[in-house]
Automatic annotation (TrEMBL), chain A:
PROSITE patterns cross-referenced by the UniProt entry: CLAT_ADAPTOR_S
Protein's UniProt keywords contain Protein transport: yes
Matches recorded under SUPFAM superfamilies: SNARE-like
Recorded name of the encoding gene: ap2s1
Organism name: Cyprinus carpio (Common carp)
Known partners and oligomeric status: Adaptor protein complex 2 (AP-2) is a heterotetramer composed of two large adaptins (alpha-type subunit AP2A1 or AP2A2 and beta-type subunit AP2B1), a medium adaptin (mu-type subunit AP2M1) and a small adaptin (sigma-type subunit AP2S1). Interacts with CCDC32; the interaction is direct and mediates association of CCDC32 with adaptor protein complex 2 (AP-2).
Protein name, entry field: AP complex subunit sigma
Bilayer topology: Peripheral membrane protein
Family: Belongs to the adaptor complexes small subunit family.
Automatic annotation (TrEMBL), chain B:
Record InterPro entries: Adaptor_Complx_Large_Subunit, AP1_complex_gsu, ARM-like, ARM-type_fold, Clathrin/coatomer_adapt-like_N, Clathrin_a/b/g-adaptin_app_Ig, Clathrin_app_Ig-like_sf, GAE_dom
Alphabetized SUPFAM superfamilies for the sequence: ARM repeat (SSF48371), Clathrin adaptor appendage domain (SSF49348)
Record SMART domains: Alpha_adaptinC2 (SM00809)
Compositionally biased residues, Basic and acidic residues: 603-615
Name of the protein described by the UniProt record: AP-1 complex subunit gamma
Length: 153, 746
């Protein structure tokens, strides 16, 4: 059994995943130490758990000994794995915040944008989340930074 | 880095592969290409190659050979190469890889780079995959950045510090002073990071927590500012000013106010303000309200505030958004013990949530409903719970059933209601109840002696309707066996009378015996019940005899053994009135009587295997016959529903005029008192009469003085002797006593 607790009740984001319905990973950001095969297993399990749910379910799933906050946007599932005692609604808002930034940045983002510009998606994630915590929540600020960074490349 | 056409091209080509095999082939080619690119050294193409490799890695293919390239690229002066190098490090390297140490130096240099974006890359990478060693190395740098730099860097530095503390807790002291000063920052991002950092410091070190309690007024001020400021466009989400920051501050306040009156007092007003002023029409507001409720419940808040919090949760229950209903119930569950009355007010809404379509919501509603059952509302709640049981998803059934049983046990308004409820559950969800339900129900039935008639009628009707639910069938068989005579009488107060003949009953039991749906245990119940009826019915005893003898050759060993022994009861021991004694009505069972807690699930009182009884020497009148009785007795005890010592009087020896009876006087959990009565119907007195007894090791024997040692002739008198059997370990019931007689017959 994988133990995914750094400490008992450590309130940290364990990982952020973007997956499509078929199970293909479009982004996997890990904030805790896992082996490669552990990561693979987690990805598969999250996919299995999340894709069987529909509109009549809540956006929270209890998963192993913590929980997944997720939301579906078109064909993509955005999942954040947090501690059982964490505030579900806050993370739900964080997901939405993140998606809105992506939308702005890629001008009506679609899955292919995330595929062909995968490294940019990581940049966005790293602007908004860090060390397993929410980092910057102001969409305007994040977008400003992203444009700056883009100009450097 | 404008992605080279080749990267985009590669992605397109990979996506166009039609089969897994084709994709693998493309990947292999590309990887070979990438490898040769890496070998070529600096040619401006390295970052593109690494980017391609990272894409391949995301698809799930191995990419370890790129690790060293990451290290090289990080050390490059060009931003685009550094950038990809760091991304690669975060994706391909983790603290377990040796290569990760190699980048420590680069990170160190980049932390002091002139460009804040390079600094930011280094911070980000360290916060993502920094090992304990790297953290120790670079902690002073981070601390410096906390104090000196631009807010863009400070934001990242605070969270990087959080990561360092998690990896190396001893370094917490290093960051404590700077953390304090960061609270005066105006920049929300930095403030947010500072609050997270302080939270982490306080959670790890109680002394630091005490220190930071002094910051409560400052935190309260910041919150007030957020709540009242009507317009903060940058961090505004659905009209709420930076809900994320509010949530973090509330969480920190919770930790600081926990178990501390001064701190709790200082935040009381603020919490009330947030609770009343926050708009909960959107998720953002609800998130803040929720965190507020959690904080109120966890600190020493005044009761008015607590009521406010529970009311918020109650409002949440009525929210259209299922998410909000769900988290409300999660919280209500935590406080249902401490604030029971407050939660009771929302019982109606909670019960309604049983009908929600999401199973996790249903589960929460079930747990809460069970916690809210009380003597006052038991009838109405049970109605709802029973309805729920019949429609709930299978994974919740056994939890519901056992919850119903517990509630019924504690709050039943009457025995009949209790029995009815259990029967209802067994009919609806008999397959999902725990094993102890059967003996528990049997015990309950025996205690409700005024309801025996009602119960057996009800169970009989349930039995003839359906024999699929094993637990129900087992209880029904037991009842019919025990109270079959009441069933035949036909009249019953509380239920419509129905004519039941002996054949009807035997038909029902035989159906159970023969059905393939019946489990072996159930068939055991049925067979024993049939046997017991032999003393309760009058006409059809022969039918019973034949049923029992058929099963004497049954393939099931357990059934066969029972049948053989019941046969023995018919054949050998009929004349000793053993059969009727053995099959007599059972007394009311004590809940904790040893037989009851016996691990056996059949509900019958089963004796464990006895070792072969010692041959009894009976002095001058040593009788093989007496041995047979005794041996047979113990065999039967193995499988019959009999309390040996409860049968009022049993004759254990009758020969040549001397008869010895055992009479049970008293029986408790650990002790049995019997009286041995010896009488003499011969012409002459019997003198020098003594009795000795031996018992199994676990039992203590105490024989009181006999009333005499001469038994008068012609049955004119008796000799009695009281014997105490003590079974302190509540081990298997003292199954047997070996009796030795010796006397002189004149």
């Amino acid at each position: 059994v994988l133990s995914l607790t750094v400490q008992p009740r450590c309130k940290i984001i364990r990982f952020i995943l973007i997956q499509n319905r078929a199970g293909k990973t479009r982004l996997a950001k890990w904030y805790m130490q896992f082996d490669d095969d552990e990561k693979q297993k987690l990805i598969e399990e999250v996919h299995a758990v999340v894709t069987v749910r529909d509109a009549k379910h809540t956006n929270f799933v209890e998963f192993r000994n913590f929980k997944i906050i997720y939301r579906r946007y078109a064909g993509l599932y955005f999942c954040i794995c947090v501690d059982v005692t964490d505030n579900n609604l806050a993370y739900l808002e964080a997901i939405h915040n993140f998606v809105e930034v992506l939308n702005e940045y890629f001008h009506n983002v679609c899955e292919l944008d995330l595929v062909f510009n995968f490294y940019k998606v990581y940049t966005v994630v790293d602007e908004m989340f860090l060390a397993g915590e929410i980092r910057e929540t102001s969409q305007t600020k994040v977008l400003k930074q992203l444009l700056m960074l883009q100009s450097l490349e | 880095m404008t992605p080279s056409v080749r990267l985009q091209e590669m992605i397109r080509v990979i996506r166009s592969a039609r089969t897994q095999g084709e994709e693998r082939g493309i990947i292999q080619r590309e990887c070979a290409d990438i490898r040769s690119q890496f070998r070529q050294g600096d040619n401006g193409e390295r970052s593109h190659s690494l980017a391609k490799l990272l894409y391949v890695h995301m698809l799930g293919y191995p990419a370890h050979f790129g690790q060293m390239e990451c290290v090289r690229l990080i050390a490059s002066p060009r931003y685009s190469e550094k950038r990809i190098g760091y991304l690669g490090a975060m994706m391909l390297l983790d603290e377990k890889q040796d290569a990760s140490l190699l980048i420590t130096n680069s990170i160190k240099n980049d932390l002091s780079h002139s460009s804040q974006y390079v600094q930011s890359l280094a911070l980000c990478t360290l916060a993502c995959m920094g090992s304990a060693e790297m953290c120790r190395d670079l902690a002073p740098e981070i601390e410096r950045l906390l104090r000196a730099s631009h807010s863009y860097i400070k934001k990242k530095a605070t969270l990087c510090a959080v990561h360092i503390i998690r990896k190396v807790p001893e370094l917490a002291e290093l960051f404590t002073p700077s953390a304090r000063t960061l609270l005066s920052e105006k920049n929300h991002g930095v403030l947010h990071g500072a609050v997270v950092l302080i939270t982490e410091l306080c959670e790890r070190n109680p002394d630091t927590l005490v220190q930071f309690r002094k910051a409560v007024p400052e935190l309260v001020q910041i919150m007030k500012g957020l709540v009242t400021s009507s317009y903060s466009p940058e961090h505004n989400v659905a009209g709420i000013s930076d809900p994320f920051l509010q949530v973090r501050i509330l969480r920190l306040l919770r930790i600081l106010g926990h178990n501390n009156d001064t701190a709790s007092d200082a935040m009381n007003d603020l919490l009330a303000q947030v609770a009343t002023n926050t708009d909960s029409s959107k998720t953002a507001g609800s998130a803040v309200l929720y965190e507020t409720v959690l904080t109120i419940m966890d600190i020493n808040s005044e009761s008015g505030l607590r009521v406010l919090a529970v009311n918020i949760l109650g409002r949440f229950l009525l929210n259209n958004d299922r998410n909000i209903r769900y988290i409300s119930m999660t919280s209500l569950q935590k406080i249902v013990q401490t604030d029971h009355n407050a939660v009771q007010r929302h019982r109606g809404t909670i019960v309604d949530c049983l009908k929600d379509q999401d199973t996790s919501v249903k589960r929460r509603a079930l747990e809460l409903s069970l916690a809210l059952v009380s003597a006052v509302n038991i009838r109405s709640m049970m109605k709802e719970l029973l309805i729920f049981l019949s429609v709930c998803p299978p994974e919740l059934r056994s939890q519901t059933a056992s919850g119903i049983f517990n509630a019924a046990e504690r709050y039943s308004p009457s025995k009949r209601w209790h029995i009815d409820t259990i029967l209802h559950v067994l009919t609806t969800a008999g397959g999902d109840v725990r094993d102890e339900t059967v003996p528990n129900l049997i015990q309950l039935i025996t205690t409700a002696s005024e309801l025996h008639c009602y119960t057996v009628h009800k169970l009989y009707r349930a039995l003839i309707k359906d024999i699929a639910q094993q637990s129900l069938v087992q209880v029904a068989c037991w009842c019919i066996g025990e109270y079959g005579d009441l069933l035949l009488k036909g009249e019953c107060e509380e239920i419509e009378p129905v004519q039941v003949t002996e054949d009807d009953i035997l038909d029902a039991l035989e159906t159970v015996l023969q059905s393939h749906m019946s489990s072996p245990a159930t068939r055991g119940f049925a067979l024993t019940a049939t046997m017991k009826l032999s003393t309760r019915i009058t006409d059809n005893v022969d039918r019973i005899r034949s049923i029992v003898s058929i099963y004497g050759s049954c393939i099931d060993l357990e059934l066969q053994q029972r049948a053989v022994e019941y046969n023995a009861l018919f054949k050998k021991y009929d004349h000793m009135r053993y059969r009727s004694a053995v099959l007599e009505r059972m007394p009311v069972m004590d809940k904790n009587s040893p037989g009851h807690t016996n691990g056996d699930t059949s509900g019958e009182i089963k004796e464990p295997d006895t070792s072969k009884p010692k041959p009894v020497e009976a002095g001058l009148l040593s009788e093989p016959a007496s041995q047979v009785i005794i041996t047979g007795y113990s065999e039967m005890q193995k499988h019959c529903c009999v309390y040996v010592h409860v049968v009022p009087t049993v004759s254990v020896y009758e020969k040549n005029g001397l008869s010895l009876k055992i009479q049970c006087d008293k029986q408790t959990e650990t002790e049995v008192t019997v009286t041995l009565i010896a009488s003499n119907s011969t012409q002459n007195d019997i003198t020098n009469f003594t009795l000795q007894a031996a018992v199994p090791k676990s039992v203590q024997l105490q024989m009181k003085a006999p009333s005499g040692n001469v038994i008068p002739a012609h049955g004119l008198g008796q000799v009695t002797q009281t014997v105490l059997l003590n079974n302190p370990n509540k081990a298997s019931l003292p199954c047997f006593r070996f009796v030795q007689l010796s006397f002189l017959l004149n």
